[in-house]
Write a structure and sequence with these properties.
The complex is a heterodimer of chains A (about 140) and B (about 290). With about 140 residues, chain A is α+β, with helices and mostly antiparallel strands. In chain A, about 20% of the residues lie in helices and about 30% in strands. Helices cover about 30% and strands about 25% of the residues of chain B. Chain B starts with a helix and ends with a helix. Classes of the chains: A alpha+beta (about 140), B alpha+beta (about 290).
Chain lengths: ~140, ~290
């Protein structure tokens, strides 16, 4: 309040010395945070293509990464997850940290040739991970 | 009770570990790791890897089922959500044997009656039959008149030669179905649900059907032509298609997930894991609120 407002306003605007991208980095998710990853496989790799006719490729996806300390709403984690984290950090590190695991799945349709030569179209539940959580 | 509970837990973990050990897809599973140890879903998938020689499927059947798959699922195997029916399983069977009973008669357009035997061992106890269809196709080399009306007689019998020991009176059931054979149609579907329902429900593993067709030219389409007969041998032996609802936990229950989504979207505070009864109530609640609205 010593300087009259006008003199402050007259001060030339020096370009901000800090790096904008560095500044925003703190808001990004940490690189290896718990998230969904793709894993495309074909049943021919498993040598199952002689009885699984379709689909030719299948992406079950999987969850991998560190669980942040404050999981909160972002992962839909129950409060227990933070309790477990506190136990791990402050009381007993033999208790495992919360793990990054699937929270939701979607089904998969499979066309198979049965041992008796008949053909079956079946829809299986929980064959593709679609969301991750920390538990 | 503490030590006993701990022992039980230890026993459970050792069994799980042994199960997990065999769970790894990459190790070649040898005979000892029989599916009994494997989690049920992998057992289902694993079944296909049995060393027992696999019978080659009928090429027409494979073509039909690939087309059905494309209609029901995306390239990545995701079930298309635009389907509202309840079945999550479709099985296609080729008749194991086929005996010609009586020669056909071209004058009256009667096809030779055939005896068909279908073995339904692959239908599990948790798969409930919703619809069954006899599928006829043509061998495309023969040209058909434009439109024909056919009557089909199906008779199911106790497969006597399977019950040599038990004296079994031939129990038969005659079933008529009018169907139109059109030139452009590749497949003819004859709904035999009412015929097979009691047999499949009573867990009959071998279904024995004798079929005979009588076909006449469709007068409406060609009034000029008389009741001329024609050769119907293009009808190749039929396939049996079963639409089933697999009630096991591993199967995808679309009606449940659609209903569940609707309930949670209508009342988000609804507790997870509704019991069947309260789910029913919730459904009633949703309906009445809709009426009120």
């Amino acid at each position: 309040d010593q300087l009259p407002v006008s003199s402050v306003l007259r001060k030339p605007l020096t370009p901000a010395s800090f790096n904008l991208s560095e500044y925003f980095k703190q808001f990004l998710f940490p690189q290896n945070e718990c998230e969904l990853h793709d894993f495309r496989l074909s049943f021919s790799q498993l040598k199952w293509d002689d009885w699984i006719v379709a689909p030719h490729r299948y992406n079950p996806q999987y969850c991998k990464g560190e669980c942040p300390r404050a999981v909160g709403h972002r992962y839909g984690s129950p409060v227990h997850t933070m309790v477990q984290n506190i136990i791990y950090e402050k009381l007993d590190s033999s208790v495992p940290k919360p793990s990054c695991v699937p929270a939701k799945y979607s089904p998969l349709s499979v066309l198979t040739i049965e041992p008796d030569g008949s053909i079956a179209y079946k829809e299986y539940e929980d064959m593709i991970a679609t969301k991750c959580t920390c538990r | 009770s503490q030590p006993s509970r701990r022992d039980a837990q230890n026993a459970a973990t050792t069994e799980l570990e042994s199960g997990a050990k065999t769970w790894s897809l990459l190790q070649p599973l040898d005979r000892r790791d029989r599916p009994g140890l494997l989690p049920p879903l992998f057992k289902v998938l694993y079944d296909g890897q049995d060393e027992t020689p696999r019978l080659k499927p009928d090429s027409r059947a494979l073509r039909y089922m690939k087309r059905l798959y494309k209609a029901y699922a995306t390239k990545d195997g995701i079930p298309k959500s635009n389907r509202s029916h309840l079945y999550n399983t479709v099985r296609l069977f080729t008749p194991c044997t086929q005996h010609k009973q009586t020669p056909g008669d071209h004058v009256t357009g009667t096809l030779p009656a055939v005896d068909l035997l279908f073995n339904l061992d692959r239908v599990t106890a948790v798969e409930h039959l919703l619809k069954s269809v006899l599928l006829y196709t043509f061998n495309t080399s023969v040209s058909l008149p434009s439109a024909v009306k056919c009557e089909c007689n199906l008779v199911t019998k106790e497969p006597q030669f399977f019950h040599k020991t038990l004296p079994s009176a031939p129990y038969s059931f005659t079933f008529n179905s009018q169907l139109e054979l059109k030139k452009k149609r590749k497949w003819i579907e004859i709904d035999v649900t009412t015929l097979l329902q009691p047999l499949v429900t009573s867990n009959k593993r071998n279904i024995h059907i004798s079929v005979n067709f009588t076909c006449v030219q469709d007068q409406l389409q060609q009034p000029s032509k008389q009741n001329s007969s024609f050769n119907l041998t293009p009808l190749v032996r039929p396939l049996l298609l079963l639409y089933l609802n697999d009630t096991s936990a591993q199967a995808y229950h679309r009606w449940y997930s659609l209903h569940y989504k609707r309930v949670t979207s209508q009342c988000p505070h609804q507790k997870r894991g509704l019991s069947a009864h309260s789910r029913g109530e919730a459904a009633v609640g949703v309906k009445s609120s809709r009426h009120r609205r």
